[in-house]
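Sharing a chain and its predicted structure for anyone who wants a worked example. Both blocks are below, sequence first, tokens second.
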Amino acid sequence: MEVKINDLSASEQEIEVILSYDEISADIEKEVRNQTKKIELPGFRKGKVPLHILKKRFGDALEYEASEKVANDRFWDAIKERDINPLGQPVLSDIKFEPGSELSFKVKYEVMPLIEVKNYTGHEIEIPDFKVSDEEIEREIDYIRRTNATHVPAYIVEDTDTIIEVKLIRIDENGEPFADAKPETLDIDLSNKNVQQEIVDNAMNKKVGDSFTFSFTDERTLKNKDGSDEIIKENFTYSAAISGIKRIALPALDEELIKKVTKDKETTETGLRKQIRKEIEHYYQHKTDEFLKGNLVSLVIKNNEFVPPAALVKNLLEDMVKKEEDRLKQQRIHSIKRQDLENYLRPQAEMEVKWFILRDAIITKENLRLSDEVLNELAAKDAEKTGIAVEKMVQYYKTSDYGSRIIQQKLFSFLEENNKIKKVDPEKFQNRNAENQ
């Protein structure tokens, strides 16, 4: 048996096999006999047709059919001998059979690529240098007061600390309601920054029973049959009749409110402001860590590009699409097609598969592993907290994904230590990221 393995890409191979007829004749004959058990001809019972009659009737067709089964068996024998583990379903790309002479075939299959990972250290990585401003703390204080505010009936709209109940109806350019327009009642919080400024301006100094109008333009993009984009603009004008006015009465930032929002951890305004600052700093640190990890992953992938195994991408993409479909189903969104989800999520699936392979390559190359000593130290700490025996904790670490998570943390620590991390102005960072995308 002659065997040749060709690398088509980092993750795809093709095996070529040539077998002499002497090497496969017994297998061909065995497979032909198996086929004859299923054949019926007039005058003979099923499976009892003499072989010479079948050969006269079907010629070499039975051997040709048997050769595919033999090729499949010999393919698996060949890759097993060479310790090759295909991903997904191998594909028979070519087969040639000459009865009495030889059988040759080619099979394409995917494997986990062996990447000689490189160029993942010594780079400058930018991350945003977030700083908590006094304005942010003031906004949080304002949010706390507003979420604990009371609403007092009022007669006139005097400022933005007001909620108005209005009956809306769409009107035409002459101020008349559209024929099919239906009035809608809703509350508008004029203190909300997302409320259109024209609504705020036109509602000022209005009383219960007064009306005002406002307009806006809806702009959306539609795809034409030729693939081009068409921008559709539509103007809307509404009449709003005020049926109720409520003043937003903000509470004092006293001890009672502070204890309520901090769950009795703080009692003074100074303490509250310190807590708010600490929480925002914690949020920014988490956000910065995510940016750093994302940039490190992008760096490794960019400097080690390869085609990921389609089988792994397909499996991951299927899981991602299923989760997204479930999420959309819960939100009662049924207008998004599965193909659109696949197209949208495929780049992310490909990136994740690439990182999975490159991550393990770096871990192996840098010998980032959990020693028994480290595992025992971790287990001792957790055993003290949980009361579970150290030996059981160690066993849990080894059989769960906990150990894998710790190694991944070591990987990111290694990458962070071996690259220069540069903090930059958040606005510059955002603009640069937008340009790169």
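Comments welcome. The mean pLDDT is 89.
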